[in-house]
Amino acid sequence: MLAGPGITVIPGGGNSERLAGTLAKVAAGADGIISFGMAGALDPALTIGDWVIGERVAGDFDAACDAQWAVALAKRIPTARFGQIHAEGRLIACAAEKAALGSTGALAADMESHIAARAAAQAGLPFAVLRCISDTAGHALPPAIGVAMRADGGLALGAVIKSIIKYPAQIPDLMRTIAGFNRGYSALRIGAQAIGTRLAFDLR
Fold it and tell me: Which residues of 68-80 are buried (b: 16+ CB within 10 A; e: fewer)?
């Protein structure tokens, strides 16, 4: 959904070393790096389909986001909230942990923004985060979601099936979670169209 002139899309996923290595290779010819995709809400006020623009990233690597780029993104998605993004390379599935992280001031959590922030800092590039909420702060994600992502970002279907067989009681919640992800993905696609050419970078 982001593919276009002047944009190199690098899928996220469960393998942090792979993502970091790929980002380091492409950063030399880049104008900026943006972490774009889904995120889990840490603020109870956020609902599925809401947008968050990063002011800074905290967690495994702390860094401020480019203020001008953040403002440019907000002009494209005026309903988005500005705030801190938590990222440390793992899924935050537990509602209690979401609440604890939310109490630090973070609005949302994802699995890749810290890697993108580090790559941008090492290359001296502007960095931004634009994330769409896929699950709410009060929702504990079922076990199958925790094993659903392959290292390359694809669906680990075999692992999901094994989890369902082991914990069949999770099926109703898993279906609700997937429905929420689908709503978030639809909003993500609309947002990708709204931010336009080169992801609002040239509006800085």
Answer: ebbebbbebbeeb
